[in-house]
Amino acid sequence: MRRRALWALLCCACLPDSAALACTARIEGGQRVESTHYELAYRPHPTPVVVGQHFALDVIVCARAPHDRVAELRVDARMPDHRHGMNYRPSVTDRGGGVYRVEGLMFHMPGRWQYVFEVRDARGTERLTQDHWLR
Ligand SMILES: [Cu+2]
To answer: Number of C-alpha atoms within 13 angstroms, CB side, residue 54?
Structure first.
């Protein structure tokens, strides 16, 4: 039941067999970020993120080309202006079908944070970043 609810939320992760179609990664109420070969959508839980409190991310990664396959997703966050990262190392669980759950994130101070998503594939690593302002 819980799994079904998750799939309803993550409405359109790419289906492997629909590879000829342009992929679209979307999560209701989430953010999107794109790179050369991948689209990624994510949403924090709980929302909004609160200073000093652990949170998780639901993530969908979608390849733009049918032959591209994600070998691994790594997720981190940092404060570029302060030149530091988080005090915790998040863990990424691959749920299949381009869906990932990231646990153990915490933004320990307000300001400009930056999510860093690293998608590893046969070519190497593609990095997607997006700012998150925290008050
Ligand atoms: Cu800082």
So the answer is: 7
Question: 7 alpha carbon to ligand 1 midpoint, in Å?
Answer: 35
CB 125 within 8 A of CB 119: yes
**CATH classification number, 2-14+22-134, choose in 2.60.40.1930, 3.20.20.300, 2.40.33.20, 1.10.287.3610:** 2.60.40.1930
Indicate the helix (H) or strand (E) that contains 3: helix 2-9
| 11 C-alpha to ligand 1 centroid (Å) | 34
Stated pTM of the model: 0.83
118 CA distance to ligand 1 middle (Å): 21
Tell me the CA–centroid distance for residue 65 and ligand 1, in Å: 37
Q: What is the pLDDT of residues 6-20, one digit of tens each?
A: 544 554 454 444 433
